[in-house]
Predict the 3D structure of the following.
Amino acid sequence: MPHRRRRKDIRNLAIIAHVDHGKTTLVDALLKYTGAYDFKEDEVAIMDSNPLERERGITIFSKNASFEYKGVQVNIVDTPGHADFGSEVERILKMVDGVLLLVDAFEGPMPQTKFVLKKSLELHLKPILVINKLDRANTRPDEVADMTFDLFCELNATEEQLDFPIVYASGKEGYATLDPDEPRDSMKPLLDTILHRVLPPVADPDLPFQMLVTMLDYDSYVGRIAIGRIFHGEVAVGEPVALVKRNGEIAKGKVTRIMKYRGLKRIEAEKAKAGDIISISGIEGVEVGETIAWINKPKGLPAIKIDEPTISMNFSHNTSPLSGKDGGRFLSSRDIRERLEHEAMINVGIKVEEVDGAERFKVSGRGELHLAILIETMRREGYEMEVSRPQVIFKKMGSQIIEPVEELVIEVDEEYQGAVMQALGSRKAEMKDLKTTSTGAVRMEFVIASRALIGFRSDFLMMTRGNGIMYQNFFEYQTYKGEMPTRQRGVLIAHQDGIAVAYALYNLQARGEIFVKPGDKLYAGMIIGVNNKGANLVVNALKRKKLTNIRAAGSDDAITLIPPRPVTLEFALEFIADDELVEITPQSIRIRKMHLSEVERKRIDRKQKTEGR
Ligand SMILES: Nc1nc2c(ncn2[C@@H]2O[C@H](COP(=O)(O)OP(=O)(O)OP(=O)(O)O)[C@@H](O)[C@H]2O)c(=O)[nH]1
Ligand SMILES: [Mg+2]
């Protein structure tokens, strides 16, 4: 092999792990130790800068940061751990030369650990294992190291990959050590391991310019921004460049701005060279996976695979009687269409199609969370809309229909094992493994159709009183698994428009969980709670107590209501049936029947029954 030039002044790495194993907190620790960011008191997870990330305590968007250590610039990409964003992590791995694989010192490797490790090994990366959260009680670092070693073997790691270094750390306390019995005082051992074990990027500035676009950003002033790594050559502001599309077509553009990463900031630069991770503006129509190249000899880098969407929902403008009364600023189909088209442009994995003559849009994404984040973002921007139940996307293989199935890991106390197994059995799950963990919990692994899992999480939380852990992860496509049970419980439906009354809700709460509180605006066809008995019931939630004598006056106030179930977006999307919708406004999330009139619902019901006969 010819001698390959490497740039010793730089390292590019990503930090990967299962959700919540402490990636963002560890980046905090590295930025703090190297002084790349000036932390204020109590400031944590600074990379989770988006308001939705802060609210949910998870990373949604990958982000770049950089710091300097011993004269070397280290670019680090913090990635999301949630399974919906797995394909984004996979793309990011193409941009880096090394990874920190974090594993919680108590939990050990989890489904997403396996997924991200598999992708890293396939790309010939040599991970550094960081056994993290060493400060927690009941950690078992040696056992976790062994379990991770076994996982490397199971995933066919090479000899070289198996020779991974292990660093023990606590991102929270800000220390790392090569030996858990040694003193723990700084991040230095991890930083030194990064310098020694992450290869400097292969980078020849004399070759023609080539940059692989791994992420996109948008700025209303400069338009689309391409983010990625320069593999070869150099580029400067003002230069003409070529854009090599995925199909080999060539478009032309001109670099109007180059930004590099310093700490958490992007700073403008006049030029950049091989090995740098940068963002470039000025290339119209650029998409993820394409190559920006030298204008005189444009050559594409190997294309990045973009995973197909797995789930879809219909979006349309809000047709409820309360439309526009909740402070929404963007109400029309046209508003929604423009916003969705913009999203499809920059959010890889989101696809938008028109249905029903442009009144409705089928929006497809990589999972329920992926779409829920889009809805939540639009809602905060002032959009109102209604969305239908998430549907899994089937595929055809020859004459066969195939559907996505997931690996599901569940950890519960023994007392809930039976109920969970029964619920999953009825959803045609196949059990793959069952063990008792060192803390005495039961850990079960299943393979189950993705379709069967929609709506399961809320049942699971109720079943285990919030004490269970559940992780799912796309596994593969398998042959269609047949009919799945639908929601067993019925719903309580408001009979007419008005304001919910405490007395009426008091009488309804014996039937099942209630979603609304006194004073809430209701409309005919809106779903206000659950009917445990199974059937759908139209009920009067506006009824006041008859004042038969003087003492009864005002007694409404004395009624004690069970606190209603808060209708969060995730709950609503999981809960609704095929003939129901979630209404989303900046202020409220409501659940409703698609057809608000009872007569209309009955008519459709009868028609379906006659047709089904
Ligand atoms: N005890 C302890 N807790 C930690 C440590 N690092 C992170 N945590 C906690 O674990 C939770 C998740 O931490 P994050 O850093 O957001 O985890 P993450 O891997 O970035 O999560 P995602 O980006 O959502 O996948 C937070 O509540 C942290 O406070 C640690 O070293 N020790
Ligand atoms: Mg994070």
In short: The first strand starts at residue 10 and ends at 17. The pocket of guanosine-5'-triphosphate (ligand 1) is lined by residues 17, 19-25, 45, 58-59, 80-81, 132-133, 135-136, 170-172 (CB under 6 Å). The radius of gyration is 27 Å.
